[in-house]
Input
Amino acid sequence: MYSKVHSIGIIGVEGVPILVEADVSDGLPGFSMVGYLSSQVKEAQDRVRTALKNSGFRIPAKKITINLSPADIRKEGTAFDLPIAIAILSASGMIRSSGLSNCVFSGELGLDGTVKPVPGALSIVLAAKKDGKTVCYLPRENRGEGSVTTGIQVVGLDTLKDLTDYLNGIRKLPEFPADQKLPGSAGKNYDVDFSDIGGQPFLRRATEVAAAGMHNIMYIGPAGTGKTMFAKRIPTIMPSLSFEEIMEISKIYSVCGLLSGENPVMSTRPFRSPHHTISPQALAGGGRIPKPGELTLASGGVLFLDELTEFQKSTIEILRQPLEEGEITITRTHGAYRFPAKFLLAAAMNPCPCGFYPDRTKCRCSESQVNKYLGRISKPILDRFDICAESSPVSYKDLKQGEKGEASASIRIRIEQARSMQMERFKGTRIHFNSFMKKTDLERFCCLDKAEELFLKQIYESMGLSVRGYEKILKIARTIADLEGAEKMSKNHLAEAAGLRSREGRFWGGIYG
Output
């Protein structure tokens, strides 16, 4: 007899419908599987055979053929164990076949018939819903992830026997808690807050502007001046996660196996801070079967590179394409994998080996040492940073006063207002933030009056800006105006934007200027 059931495979971070076909017929007894299978999927025949036996089923000595289609998509992982078992049972007439066409099955089988969790449950349920299915059977541990999706019933399983008894109408499945609800507003679950930081008004302002327009920011200054503290608090002032963002970010973490029953979805924006010894593959993602790297895990949030000059040059240079395109493509012999990489890049570094340059009362580094140290950051990477914020040592007086700064919640209100202006401005385009504007967008959305145009010309000539630097000042000025709710950019906005860029020339002017 012939039978078919539906399952979902994972390609990158997306789910792809897979049809599992089974044919049980007379002939020389055997168990064969086809359909461009990895070794993990091929091993399913041993797991499935033993799980069926230990669940009380006796498979007849017949020829069993399993096909996973489409055949041009490589099947990976152990999640096909459960659908293969159900397909065999259906083809053997041991379970009812009616109603299977609207169901999706996914799960790994233990030799005793238990259904074990698999990665990517959220992607599986979303793909099943998109494919028009009404019920998705998952391991019990994965049900929390899947149940945040509306419009499809998600059933959790403990054992294969429970499922077959239910399909045959012998008994009901165990009751589980109600479906998960999406988390509330972002900002409530962070352990840090901007109110923890006193002083450093320039860094506070630079960080606020960066978060409002998704501008990449570099903090440069001596050690112990708060660079890392500011970077860690960027997610706390970013707007609340929308439903679409929650789903997209959670899919990534689900595929990587980083969600749990207690945290079935990502409730806060990611903050990833890889160590400077990280390999290029771990940053970008990769492997024989590519998996998301730190760039993708930071999507929707912040990627923080502390001690930027200590990273391998080859590792830093990987940032070029993702920062421009918002995604990273990894190609292997059996296909190309695309992973999202839409993050705000924040970096921190010292200005010289000792950290005190350009304060010559403390810095003892020679000019060649300083230039060699700063030269570890290539010009193309440096150009990817919109804002360069210099930190300064905190005085003893400021330290002892202990005045609290403005809380993240109040800063976030201004940023959300600025973001709403950007959403309205870019409606109908592929742009979402000021930092993503191209030349034609600048001409359309950053129009200046005569006085402002003359002022910008003076800035351009006095700072010796490149075309890229000129465009970045316009983008930053547009964001500053949005924070004030202004439709037009003024001289003050342009002047502040130039100030947020001038630190770069102060340190790298002698190298790249």
User: Anything to note?
Assistant: The mean pLDDT is 89.
